Amino acid sequence: MPVILGLGTVIGSNFRPDVLAHIGSSGITVVVMFIATIIATLAGLTYLVRVRKYSFVMALLSCIPGGQAEVTAISRDFVQKDYVVALFHLVRVALVFCSTPLILAFVEGDAAVIRSNDALASMAGIADIDLNSMLLFLMISIFSLPVAMLVRLPMPHLLGPLLISSAFHILGLVEIPRISEFVIVAQIVIGASVGARLACVPFRQLAMYIRDAIVNSAIVLSTYGVIAYCLALLTGIDFIKMLLAFVPGGLYEVTLLALIFGFDIAFVAFHHTIRVMMVFLGLPFIITFAERRNLINRNIKSPH
Prior knowledge:
Elements: H1 2-12, H2 19-24, H3 27-51, H4 56-63, H5 68-75, H6 82-108, H7 110-122, H8 131-150, H9 156-170, H10 180-199, H11 203-235, H12 239-246, H13 251-261, H14 265-292
């Protein structure tokens, strides 16, 4: 939790006063990202329902691309085996977090590794930051959580500091540098937490679902990857940057990758925030539609 709060503040610090004009020019990529989200969800849903015979609601919650913790919590009200939904999302996030550095190295070679190391080396260290900036960093990270919970933001631990830090930086009220030591700690903590959560899943009990989770993740991620590649060719935007903006690998995991690769974090974080909000705004309507079609029975839950 402390790492996520701090990471939200660091991500928000990339939204400088000139970022609004930059975001305004992202209209085409945002629209394509919307379309990609719909296509990827339908592709994963088709595989799980038609091929693997999952119930509609189990398949939907397992393949919907965004908000893994919140979707897992929601699934407790609709399916019996909510841990299966958690497994699907964990597998997808783990695949993105582990494969993206390899894809970057494969596509761009040694130059990508050098650029990543240069990006980390160029960040200010704790010893280089003045006391006021450090206090502002801590205050935004700590006090943004109760504010976000008060206004009922989804993912308050991340969106709270991200939005408050973004607002302060866009208005020019503060200027917090990225702290290299914190970014390194965030890499270790997030990577270890993903692995630890996977290690807590009973393997024998979930062995039959692991293949489905991997195949579903491959379908969803490859759909985003193909669309991101085509859009990168049309717009001239770096493919890995576009992939990070599109691929549903966890908002703070993917923005952390953008941070250590030296890409435009505001571009990546903006697209992921829009996608997550799209998922949460659309999910209640989809569930209501499913209930009207008798695709969800709250009393007799799916055998899957």
